[in-house]
Specification:
alpha+beta, five-stranded antiparallel sheet, two-stranded antiparallel ribbon, 2 helices
């Protein structure tokens, strides 16, 4: 019975990771890559930094905050590679963070599928 519970939890984690991975891949392949400039640094909570970036999207200048909340501040006037959404140019991700999240979620999918296979086929009940 325990093996079915563990396999079910692994399947749920795999499904959630696949959904997140698809969302990231859609952003990577359909988003528009550009360079954004950090125009300020705010610290809404101690140790968490938010950076408003200015970039050009569809001929308009956009100023938008990053949504991540970094533990180390970027410098004002830093130029960073970003990917923004076609329909919502105010929503963007840093390309380096997007690549890292794609890799991490792909590894999570593989690991959780391996857990499901292990507990479904290679663990026998006593």
């Amino acid at each position: 019975m325990e093996r079915y519970i563990v396999a079910s939890i692994g399947a749920i984690i795999a499904a959630a990771a696949v959904i997140y991975l698809v969302k990231l891949l859609v952003m990577w392949f359909t988003g528009i890559k550009t360079t954004g400039e950090v125009i300020a640094v705010r610290e809404p909570k101690q140790g968490t930094f938010v950076h408003p970036l200015r970039y050009c999207a569809a001929g308009k200048n956009i100023v938008s905050d990053d949504k991540t909340g970094y533990s180390q501040a970027f410098s004002v006037s830093d130029r960073l590679e970003i990917v923004y959404r076609r329909r919502l140019p105010e929503r963007f991700e840093y390309t380096s963070a997007l690549k890292k999240n794609i890799i991490v979620s792909a590894v999570l999918v593989v690991m959780s599928v391996l857990i499901v296979i292990r507990f479904m086929f290679f663990v026998t009940e006593v």
